[in-house]
Design goal:
- The chain is α/β, with parallel strands linked by helices.
- The protein has one domain (3-222): Copper homeostasis (CutC) domain (TIM Barrel), CATH 3.20.20.380.
- The chain contains eight helices and eight strands, in the order E-H-E-H-E-H-E-H-E-H-E-H-E-H-E-H.
- Helix 4 (104-114) links the parallel strand 4 and strand 5.
- Helix 3 (70-85) packs parallel to helix 4 (104-114) and helix 5 (131-140) packs parallel to helix 6.
- The chain is globular and about 65 Å long.
Amino acid sequence: MVSLEICCGSAEDAIAAWHGGASRVELNSDLFHGGLTPSIGTLKIVKQTAPDLKVICMVRPRESGFCYTDVEFEVMLEDAAELLKNGADGIAFGFLHEDGTIDIDRCRQMLAIIGTKESVFHRAIDVVPDVLSAVDTLIELNVTRILTSGQKPTALEGSQTIQHMIARADGRIEILPGSGIRPHNAAQCRELFRTPYLHASMHTIVCDSSTEHRPEIHFHGSTLLPENQYKLVQKKDVAEFIRQANL
């Protein structure tokens, strides 16, 4: 038997996954941008409603890559500590240097906060230059689990690399296949990987009609940025705005 971890973007998602039989969820916000840190309120409602559901909380402060500023890193440590204090069973995270290699020092600091709870190095692993060396590094750091698509868009496309990672791990760290795993290929993935868990997204489209009477107004971004870009407030722009507004 293989168990299912569901990627969730809300308390509603996580509770539905629990009712459907999932034994573990990865709890996020903003799945459109790959999954960001969920709110404490989201976590508390999930744990109150589904106390026997294992909840791994994503800690990721923004979209794009995984080389964070000092401020972003401090926020991540604070978020992890608060999530664990409020019932998270583990933390999913990933720290890379600009060259794509694992930032060992930052990982150690996060792992010190996680302590005896579960630690998951997320799909940042899928952009490292040497994935098997990265597996060795995470084993040495005593990380619980690696979530991966085998450095391809989907786990099936990356199945050969995932199998190499499983062989390299040799039981010393759990390898969790994820991305593109759906009901129609779940049995195939189970046979290919023979891992205790598979990681899947199970979302359908629903409608909220409350904005329909003003269709010209948008609350989402007007353009989708490339994967290596994200938006950030710059102090010079704020200073210029204030200067112009007070001429």
